[in-house]
Amino acid sequence: MNPRTGHQDHKGISWVTVGFISLGCAKNLVDSEYMATSLISAGIHLAPSPEQADVILVNTCSFIGDAKQESIDAILDACGEKKAGRCKAVIVAGCLPQRYRGSLAVAIPEVDAFIGLDQLNELPGLIRKLVSGRKYQAVNVSDESTRLFEPASRSVSFTGGPHAFVKIAEGCNHRCGFCIIPKIRGPYRSRRISDIVRQSERLLESGIRELDLISQDTTSYGSDLKDGSDLPALLRALGKIGGDFWVRLLYGHPAHVSYHLLDTIAEVKQVCKYLDLPIQHSHPEMLRAMLRPTGSRSGVRSLPSRIRKMIPEVTLRTTCLVGYPGETNAHFLDLLGFVCEAEFDHLGVFAFSREEGTRAFGLPCQVCKRTASLRRDQIMRAQQRIVIEKASKLVGCKEVILVEKPESVRKGASKRWIGRSVRHAPGIDGEVRVVEMPPGNHAGKFVVAKYIAVDGYDLRAAYVGGA
Asked: Helix, strand, or coil here: 131?
């Protein structure tokens, strides 16, 4: 019997609460959701916050230096909670222990357990051991990540809105010179179309209205299955579910944007006319140095116009990398000119991070960090002008908005809700603040709104009616 609740313990651990700190990308968030679901199935409760938990789990990222530092800081903060007696154990999961499995436990002995990417399903048993009173440090990390986990029929959602990230594959077969992900996440492995459709149907039945398809490279989906599966086939299968919902593609690769894929995006009504395709650079010399297969100048430069010709209303997002070893000022100006010429709707810029284990780590002609930062800032200033100009042209136009959450306003002000259009991916592209919303609206509802103002990367719109 649990003295705190008066109820019978489930396998002796129902009194344990676990709080999650999930860092990094959406793919990591899906892993956190999987682990949280497995805990609930084992009778373990989730805490309202890490500060209120018996066990703190930090799901880490180690893609670049800043991400590693954020992960280390979060781990040390959690260990501080344990030292102060506010929690009983700290567990570290995700990319950091997978990447540094041989040294992380020695570097941070305060952590009670480390688990790798292939051991996510072992979390309930591990917690059971940790709270049994035994004092030891557990390290369970495989040499290579090869597993592919299927979500449970009823899964925890950490998105906080009417959208869900659906991981369609794991791992990566690309060998970009700057990226450590293939060594951390292992080879590319796709889920079956039938499994993805089944999960999507459950999510839609639960009230989700946007399915965000993710993997290290969504455009490579099905390449390993050898059964004819590919991304267009998956999109058409999702469209056959029927109904009003959005399907959004994130994390694609420019080399795999086929006419067949563009035709499918244009034809399937549920698929957002939105593509997230990190180009990294425009200059052929830099693309070759990065080991990017889009190494021809014409291929990269023609990509935006080729896509827009087939899908005129498309929204394009990309990512650029500046400061890669050997990048000259001429290379950078080529990229800057291309960004201004292509006028991407959304764009992110990373300054090169020198990561051990990558090809770029030992390359000569390393660009100093200050130069890389200045280049990043210059591109972002140019992109901000593009975004504001594009957004200003939307003022006066009507568009369908997916309502996500109410916005707190002072007493007496009009009711306001925060939402997104098909132009905006969750968490990265800005928001639409809808005013003059009538009573009866709720998260997950589609409404029509008219844009009335631009507010930085966000937009304001007035409610017009139901979609």
From this structure: coil
Query: 179 in a domain, yes or no?
Result: yes
Decide if 147 is inside a domain. Answer: no
Same domain, 359 and 410: no
Question: Quick check: 346 and 428 in contact, CB under 8 A?
Answer: yes
What's residue 407's pLDDT?
A: 84
Instruction: Report the CATH number at residue 27.
Output: 3.40.50.12160
Q: pLDDT tens-digit profile of 293-348?
A: 764 445 788 999 999 999 999 999 999 999 999 999 999 999 999 999 999 999 99
- pLDDT at residue 409, as a whole number: 57
Same domain as 387, residue 286: yes
Which residues span the domain enclosing 441? 395-466
Helix (H) or strand (E) holding 261: helix 259-267
- Within a domain: residue 68? yes
**Helices then strands, each counted (H, E), the chain:** 13, 19
How many CB atoms lie under 10 A from the CB of residue 135? 6
Supply 219's token pair.
Answer: 């455009």
> Do residues 404 and 358 both lie within one domain?
no
d(CA 201, CA 235): 13
Nearest-angstrom CA–CA distance, 333 and 87: 52
Residue 375 falls inside a structural domain: yes
Other C-beta atoms closer than 10 Å to the C-beta of 295 total: 18
Work out the percent of the chain whose per-residue pLDDT is above 70.
94
pLDDT mean across residues, the chain: 92
Single-letter amino acid, residue 432:
V
The number of residues making up the chain comes to 467
Report the half-sphere exposure of 197 (CA within 13 A, side-chain side): 14
